[in-house]
Specification:
Strand order of the largest sheet: 1-2
Number of domains: 2
Number of helices: 1
Distance between the termini: 24 Å
Largest sheet: 2 strands, antiparallel
Length: 96
């Protein structure tokens, strides 16, 4: 995201491809949103929900190393196996 000036594309325009390529397929002409502010939210679901309701989509980082993450396909991912110091995936919170 930092390499694309905070700009975002839709998943349909930039689909997940696993480890099939090391190439970036970012296309600035297909951007639909831009990150405008970075803050650290508290670890509190109600406060995150309130921020999502007030500001819209919230970007965050997660640890993808738990084995159950490999089988995740949709919905809310919830595990107690995450490591707050091993963040390696960026995702968006769009509400719940």
């Amino acid at each position: 995201i930092s390499e694309q000036n905070g700009e975002w594309m839709l998943e349909n325009d930039y689909p997940y491809t696993s480890h099939s390529s090391n190439q970036c397929y970012f296309d600035a002409s297909k951007c639909v949103s831009k990150t405008t502010k970075i803050v650290q939210l508290p670890i509190n679901e109600e406060k995150i929900l309130a921020a999502c309701a007030e500001y819209g989509v919230i970007s965050c980082c997660i640890d993808s190393s738990p084995i159950d993450f490999m089988y995740y396909s949709e919905g809310i991912f919830d595990t107690d196996q995450c490591n707050a110091w091993e963040l390696d995936h960026a995702v968006n919170i769009v509400g719940y």
